[in-house]
Each structure stands twice: as C-alpha cells, then as structure tokens.
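Researcher: Here's my situation. A collaborator sent me these components and asked whether they could plausibly form a single complex. I don't have experimental data yet, so a predicted model of the whole assembly would be a useful starting point for our discussion.
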Amino acid sequence: MILRRVWRCTRRSFSSFPYNRYPLDAPNCNVPRNIAKRVGTNLHRQPQHPLGILQRRILEFWQPHGFQLYDQLSPIVSTTHNFDHLRIPSDHVSRSPSDTYYLNATTVLRTHTSAHQHELLKTGQNRFLVAGDVYRRDEIDRSHYPIFHQMEGVKIFAPHEQNLIQSELKESLEQLAEHLFGQHITKRWIDTYFPFTEPSFELEILFEGEWLEVLGCGVIHPEVLAKAGRGEQMGYAFGLGLERLAMVLFQIPDIRLFWTHDERFHRQFASGEIVRFEPYSKFPPCFKDISFWLESAFHVNDLNEIVRDVAGDLVERVWLIDDFVHPKTGKTSHCYRIAYRSMDRSLTNEEIDDLQEVVRNRVVNDLGVILR
Ligand code: DAH
C-alpha cells in the first residue's frame, strides 16, 4: 500500500528572526540556525494545533475574570528582563550558556514567559496572561525539546483585598485544573521555591497513577513589584507548560510531534477540540553509540545541540550509557547512545550511518574531544 502523505506548505514556518540585528556568528552567540529559523512559528497561535487549542481553552477560563492575553511578545529579551528583574541570582545555573541561548552577552531567547512580568506590570496591567515560545538548551528525550511553550498569568489586588491573595490563587488554579482535566481529578499542592514568588507552590495532579506537575505559582515577591514601580501592591503569578499539559490531554506520546508537518497529525485536530491523538505509525528506532574522552569544558548539552543540528527531529533520545575513569591517566570517557527515529516515515540504514558520521566529525571538531 502506498501511503499518501500531504505536506501542507501553509504550515511551514516563516522565520521572523532578525538576523541583521543579531548575527548568529557574533561573539557569545550560541544559537544554532535550526533554532533561530523557528522563531516566529508561533505554534500556540495556530487555532487547529494542539497548543493553540489548549491556549484557547486556558484563555476561556481566565477571560471572564478580566485577564488580557499577550501572545505576540518577542521571545528575544534582555538578561535583565529574563533574570535580574525576577531576582534570579547572578550565579544561577539557568544563566549559563550551557542552559540558555544567548544572542549576545546581554540578550537571550527567553527561557520562560515570566520574562515579561516586569514590562507589563510597569505599564499598569493588573490582570494579564502571556503565552509564547520559550527556549532552553536541554536533554533530548520524548518530553524535552529546546523550544516549548508557556502561559503565564498575573493578577494584582487592591490594597483592601490583599488578605485574599493566597486563597484565591489556590482556588482559581484548582478550578483551572478541573476545567482542563475534569471535575474528578485528584490534586495536591507542594511547597517549593522560585526567586520571584514568596511563598511559592506547585500544583500536581494524579494522572495514570503518577503525580504530574501542572504549574508553578506564588505570591509575587515584593521586590519584583517594587522594581516595576508597583511597590505598594501585591498579587499572584503562575506559569504553565503547554506541551506537558497537551501531551496528557491529547495523549501525544512524543514532543517532536508538535513540530511535524505531517497531515496525518494535523487533520486529527481540525475540529479545534481536545481529542485523543491516534498514532498513525510507529517506526523502529535505530541506535548508535558514540564514545569519547572528555575535555574539561565538555557539557552534554553541547553534544545534544550537535545531534539536533545534524539530525533535526530524527533524533528521539540521547543518553549516557557508560561513564568510565581511566585508572592510569585519570581521564574520563563517556559513551552516549543516540536513538534515531522519525515520527513520519521509516529511515534507511545508510541515512542513519551518514548522520552518525557527521555527528562524529562535528563532535571532534566543535568540542575538541577524542573519539575512542
Ligand atoms: N517561570 C517558571 C518556570 O519557567 C514558572 C513559574 C513559576 C511562573 C511560578 C510563575 C510563577 O509566574 O509564579 O519554571
């Protein structure tokens, strides 16, 4: 049987990345072309994309409470907005170029939608949502992808209402969870820490026998408000990860599917409703190992970046399978396994061998490690 696959050109992304202003070969820039070219895709604004459907569903909940949505703010932000205004310490790991995409020393691809709290608070907004794409250098597996989407919410209260904040925060977010997952889900609150809220909480729901983190939230730290010129006021904030929720609600098994152009994926969501995804294919994975002696500056995210750059969405997972210290030289050797698998078609051995060869060469040239 010949499978007919229709690629919809309309879904191809048109990058709005300002290459002139932020050349990718500039000093301190660690953004690869395959990331830059997806800036501006705005999956969360496509009405028949699972992320767009979910965003609308969340908006439906907040809009009657007077929240205004901002879903077209540029993901290119200053380190001041992404970190400093949110009290993220100057030595925090999330600022490291191994974790964050820098366009230059003071400009990043936002790592969270919280990066917009300051500017919106400054313009006097009291109830708002921010939805958008966020970027993190991270591991490669079925639930991690360097671009994902978040939705942020902020509500500021009048002085005489301030004793309500914490209880209203928890009540509203429990109602939101019920709005998304149904009346009968089991939930629990976990105390946690974020630099920009005090106190801070996470909401988890019981899903198929496991606790799943749905969102982070808290009472906005007074310093965050003071920096935005709102020192007399108080309020709450929360942030949700859209892919994580959508993978559960639509039963989407792999995060790469959100980026597929395959019509067999997209036509399932034509109704604009939350429906269960029916997998259309499962092709076998192909595993390749790569072993090398580490040089001091090695970070696994640099390997991940190379594999993605070479193989794009054909890489499903990269993980450490062996870690060894040579007894005489004291040198460390790592062996990583790479799982290649397409979401849409079967791959040939030659194709994978070619990719793996390019990965091996790039690892040597770009990372200066010695292959074993
Ligand atoms: N920015 C957090 C993250 O990316 C999520 C978050 C937590 C947002 C608490 C908030 C908040 O507004 O109050 O992990």
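Model: Some features of this prediction you could bring to your collaborator: The longest helix spans residues 349-367. Confidence is low (pLDDT under 50) at residues 1-10.
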